[in-house]
């Protein structure tokens, strides 16, 4: 089941963080960079986030989530997280499908991911995202900007 998450609530923010840390540790090892900013998030930071969070729940357990913000008329995906214990169950695809149908409301959608994160890059391409740019926010980390235009 997919639903909006009330991340400003302590318990929900703690659940998001508990899922986010192990997932980003996997990405950090994939891309060879352990300085991913979301690895340093706290419950308080999530509670104060101005992102919109949607979660994928199985029997009441949060297994994955997507967060986004509106930026310059586009919907910008900030986090797409699936708990490592639930990899390869199609959760990320279900979250993206829901987001594109229910949340992005005809806007262009943008996202960045690690250049070495082939699973994420392939997933976004499967949904029609095109790679626009590659950049290095700091030495040792290459990111790819992808965009899906709404036609």
UniProtKB/TrEMBL annotation:
Family annotation (SUPFAM superfamilies): Acyl-CoA N-acyltransferases (Nat)
Record Pfam families: Acetyltransf_1
Transmembrane domains' residue ranges: none
Domain N-acetyltransferase: 3-151
Domain of life: Bacteria
PROSITE patterns (alphabetical): GNAT
InterPro entries referenced in this protein's UniProt entry, alphabetically: Acyl_CoA_acyltransferase (IPR016181), GNAT_dom (IPR000182)
GO molecular function: acyltransferase activity, transferring groups other than amino-acyl groups
Name of the protein in question: N-acetyltransferase domain-containing protein
Organism: Domibacillus iocasae
């Amino acid at each position: 089941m997919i639903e909006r998450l009330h991340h400003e609530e302590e318990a929900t923010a703690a659940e998001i963080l508990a899922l986010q840390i192990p997932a980003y540790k996997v990405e950090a090892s994939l891309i060879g960079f352990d300085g991913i900013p979301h690895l340093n998030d706290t419950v308080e930071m999530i509670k104060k986030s101005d992102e919109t969070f949607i979660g994928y729940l199985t029997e009441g357990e949060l297994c994955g989530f997507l967060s986004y913000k509106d930026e310059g008329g586009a919907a910008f995906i900030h986090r797409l997280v699936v708990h490592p214990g639930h990899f390869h169950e199609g959760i990320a695809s279900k979250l993206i499908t829901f987001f594109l149908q229910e949340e992005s409301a005809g806007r262009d959608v943008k996202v960045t991911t690690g250049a070495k994160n082939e699973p994420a890059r392939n997933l976004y391409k499967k949904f029609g995202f095109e790679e626009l740019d590659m950049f290095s926010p700091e030495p040792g980390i290459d990111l790819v900007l992808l965009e899906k235009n709404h036609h």
